[in-house]
Amino acid sequence: MPRVSLAFFTAATLCGMAGMVWGAMMGASEDFSLSPAHAHLNLVGWATLALMGIFYALARSGGRLAWANFALSAGGVAVMVPSLALYLQGSKPAATGLQIGTVLVILGMLVFLVTVLSRWTKPAAA
């Protein structure tokens, strides 16, 4: 397995664990005001990063583009989710972090799209 896949799986698992603990805490307190941030952590952090890791494992590819994808996507989640949580709690300055994180995540997906499309030009494995 390429190391970049392991990096994606590690980040995804950390996001998944944090999302589960956060969800349990919201349930216990019956305060679901941060549900949108929780959902972004689970969907972008856990699901999207894991799917990208699966792709790189199946494609047996890594390289600079894959690591750029990881840095943008994981970094975007790390900026976006806390910023969204703060924004939902009324911190208007957190909107800047939310915008930066969103741009990073979108750029990460764009790099992933380029990577996926580039596989069309490679010969199929036997």
UniProtKB/TrEMBL annotation:
It comes from the Bacteria. InterPro entries: Cyt_c_oxase-like_su1_sf (IPR036927). SUPFAM superfamilies: Cytochrome c oxidase subunit I-like. Keywords: Membrane, Transmembrane, Transmembrane helix. The chain crosses the membrane at residues 39-59, 66-88, 94-117. This is Uncharacterized protein. It comes from Phenylobacterium terrae. The lineage of its organism: Bacteria, Pseudomonadati, Pseudomonadota, Alphaproteobacteria, Caulobacterales.
